[in-house]
Amino acid sequence: MTTWMRLMSNDGRIVFGRVENSYLHEYESLHAPVPTGAVLSLRTLTPVAPCAPGKVVALWNNFHALAAKLEKPVPEHPLFLLKPAESVIGSQQPIRRPAHYAGKIVFEGELGIVIGKRCSNASLDEAEAAIFGYTIVNDVTAAGLLNENPHFPQWCRAKGFDTFCCIGPAIVSGFDWRSARVVTKLDGVERQNYPLDDMVFTPAQQVSLISRDMTLEPGDVIACGTSLGVGSIGDGATVEVSIDGIGALVNTLAVSSGEAEAAAAVEGAA
């Protein structure tokens, strides 16, 4: 397996490369994985999202266990929505509550597929070859907005706010997803622990079938959907999504201005 990261240098430059023994061996980019010859210490770099997707394709109802719980039929084609590029943040970056929304915000720990080659109408073999590697995704949702309008479920709005697509901390190529599990913890308490081999559509099937609907570009991410255990995040709570072999994606829902002011008032009174 090979681990890849995208980081920011002290001068604000974004660098991408292969990680080995606490050093980054720089490559031109994910789109052009050619080594530059530069070797940089990770201690001098700040991690950001490991790729900059033009789009994130997020699946729904892609696990047999969740489909059974929801009493939904297993789909014949991936059911998905799109999350905008502006929603993407990396590990250790804060999730921000949308302005004028005080409702429930939900976490969903997922496996992410990172596309490495442009593909359209791809066969299974072509789809497998187009996968650069795998990462971790927290598909954040403003759950109270989904059915705010009874005439139109607002999946894209509820899931598309800035900071609502946490990705990271790395991309791992050569990763065996079949034997892995997704574990999600909320403030240290385990809330999700499910096997990836329960997926309805394998990663190659997802890439192949979705590429029939739209062209997938290098850097695009497919969030494979979640399973049992989805829950809400309180302001100030921290979500950690981990997959052995990839790492841990950690993000905190920033305390709202109202709560921060209340806390400051209590502290001042004390």
TrEMBL record:
It comes from the Bacteria. GO terms for molecular function: acetylpyruvate hydrolase activity; metal ion binding. Pfam families: FAA_hydrolase. Keywords: Metal-binding. This is 2-keto-4-pentenoate hydratase/2-oxohepta-3-ene-1,7-dioic acid hydratase (Catechol pathway). The keyword ATP-binding does not apply. The lineage of its organism: Bacteria, Pseudomonadati, Pseudomonadota, Betaproteobacteria, Burkholderiales. Residues 55-253 form the Fumarylacetoacetase-like C-terminal domain.
